[in-house]
Amino acid sequence: LKVYVWRTAVNVWNFGRSPVEGLEDDFARLFSGIASRKDLHGRFLGTTLPFQGKISFGGDVVLWATSEHPSYWLSRTYSRYTPQGWIAGKSINLPVGPNSLRPPRQESFKRVPVFQSVELGFDSDNLFSAGNLDWVSHDTIVEQLAPLEFDIEIIDSAGDSRLPEHIRGLAKELRRKLDNSSRIFGEANFDLESHVSSLLPEDLYLVGVGMAADSVHFPIPERVTIARKVPEIPDLVAWKFTDRLEANNPYSMRSLLSSANNRDLRTAPSDYSGFIKDHYLQLPTRLPQRVRDLAKHLTRDARTPLDKALAIEGYLRGDTFEYSWNIEAPPPGVDGVEYFLFETRKGYSDYFSSAMAVMLRTVGVPTRLAAGYAPGSTLDRAGRREVKDSDSHGWVQVNFPGYGWIDFEPTKNWPAMDRGERDGGATAARTGSDAGSR
């Protein structure tokens, strides 16, 4: 059908619909990630991790691993939180392999090298990793989190609520300086883009300047689009084999596992980079206030990011919450974390981990959700372990500058991470023969 519509009406419709389209896009991406368990081997982990209801997992072995230190097996991390669940940020693919490029350098203070081998019980594109990969036996693609762009409205500040908190101050400063510079906009040979670029911090660059349509005597900047530069140390979020790996075809890797104890992490700096804050302090504009209030209450006596993490982790592992696979999904329009914390107080690892990650972000601690498999159970003294479908798991990673991403375990059915004050060994989950399940 051809429909002829008055242009002004179209513009009004598009303006009013844009926020709705954003919500629909998030909703569609989240719920397209829900896969049926029928005829699937292992857990399906795509670019979305929605809050689901009742789940079930079998006892099939999905992988066998040999490692000097038991560790979680990471498939993917998620950076963007929405009321319906998590979305993986856009990434840049980087090829690495045994005869080509080595894996990118990561923050590795207080980490020890550990050789590990993994044998999958099913064909897979996904490489399950542990710690910071330093070498891998197969050609792989590492996904590096891409920097974000930000649109700053110069004439109207109403859109600032959609910007990260640390970018709002820059937006206010740009408006002030551009307003004070307006008298020189009409001068000959004046380069507006160079002028705006000179006002930006070193780790941001100018993408473009949008001009007001009603400029008469001299150009008036209406919108400034800026972007974060690619960080010197990339943030790695997932690994995939270049060619699909067949079942029972093992791969090997050398990983750098954290040996930092709580005393080390308590003295870690908290001067997070702009890139880390862009992605890992992100929260929905309308996050329920009582989630923020609870996080503030739990961390009222915490003086460091580690103490905040331990306080929230300890609360979630307490008697207030029940671990269960048999739950109802959050109702439409309800924030999943709020629903878990204040309504049901019952869920599995995705809910416990989401609650910890979101609450830590509200108190200024960069955090992300990690998903994959727990360490599994020991088979023999040689360090061989078997990981079952029921070991499918989600946990929390907290960023400590210099140390990198450190694992935390808020789900009460799993042992807490062993980071004793005098522990010099590689950090790992304390695992028994059957520690728990998702």
Strand order of the largest sheet: 9-15-7-2-20-19
The radius of gyration over CA amounts to: 24 Å
**SS elements, strand count:** 22
User: How many H/I helices?
Assistant: 9
Largest sheet properties: 6 strands, antiparallel
- First-residue to last-residue Cα separation: 50 Å
What amount of the residues lies in strands?
25-35%
Cα shape = globular
**Please, what is the average pLDDT?**
86
Task: Provide the structure class.
Answer: alpha+beta
Unreliable stretches (pLDDT < 50, length at least 5) are 1-21, 31-42, 422-438
Quaternary state reads single chain
The helix content is: 10-25%
Could you outline the blueprint of secondary structure elements for this entry?
Layout lengths: L6 H26 L15 E3 L10 E7 L5 E6 L1 E3 L2 E3 L3 E6 L14 E10 L3 E3 L5 E5 L3 E6 L3 E5 L11 H16 L11 H6 L6 E8 L9 E8 L7 E10 L5 E8 L3 H5 L7 H7 L8 H10 L6 H12 L5 E2 L12 H9 L1 E2 L1 H14 L4 E7 L3 E2 L5 E5 L3 E9 L3 E5 L30
Helix pairs in contact: 6-9, 7-9, 8-9
Structure report:
There is one protein chain. The protein is α+β, with helices and mostly antiparallel strands and 438 residues long. It has helices at 7-32, 165-180, 192-197, 262-266, 274-280, 289-298, 305-316, 336-344, 349-362, and strands at residues 48-50, 61-67, 73-78, 80-82, 85-87, 91-96, 111-120, 124-126, 132-136, 140-145, 149-153, 204-211, 221-228, 236-245, 251-258, 322-323, 346-347, 367-373, 377-378, 384-388, 392-400, 404-408. The chain has a 6-stranded antiparallel sheet with strand order 9-15-7-2-20-19, with no helix packed on it. It has a 4-stranded antiparallel sheet with strand order 3-18-21-22. Strand 21 and strand 22 form a beta hairpin. The protein starts with 6 loop residues before the first helix and ends in a 30-residue tail after the last strand. 37% of the residues are buried. Residues 1-21, 31-42 and 422-438 have low confidence and may be disordered.
